[in-house]
Amino acid sequence: MNRVVSGAAVLVALLLVGACSDDDDDGAAPVGSEGVASSDAEAVTDVTATEDADGEPIVSFEVTNDGSCSVTVTGDKEVSYEGGGTVADVLMSYWLTDAETELLGDDFTFLFNCSGPSGDSLSIFNSVGGTAETIPQAPGAYPLTGGLAGDGLFSALVTIADSETNWGVTDEGGTIDITRFDDERITGTFTIPMEDTLAELSGAESEGEILVEGAFDFPNPNA
Fold it and tell me: What pLDDT shows up at residue 8?
């Protein structure tokens, strides 16, 4: 079984593949049959790259673990999907190997992705204010705001296949509730009110507002 993943998820996978390849004797990452760099790790051996009707790339990774996530969008757009279980789901500083840390650097990283089968996707990641001190490896409830700058801890990027705009977190912000976060797994839920952020700039009719809710349960891929 394969799952379609978002651009952010592909980036996670390729970063981790690059780190794995540093351990190879010749230092080079072999390239799979689909032209995507791969390593000896079983989790990234089955990669499929295709295109949708508009010629946009669709990349999917083999489901190799028991990770899962779900997203429900309501409001002026409605969509619901499930994902998870691939090497592209999660990137956490706390879980990186020495080789991965050497490749990616010492900057704190908290990122997970949930991608649906039709091009819909969600990424939640740390903002500038999100550090090892403010986001410890432990359960906790946090505000989720828009943008990367400022003192915010978390932000989100949402792609809706049936949409032509960019969606941004509203001024009121959302929440992420981490119910478990240790060396083995991270689990939790999120609620994110979002709005069309392009309409005011472009003069186009707004696509409105949405509420993005969901849950996640991801294993540490290096555990």
Answer: 55
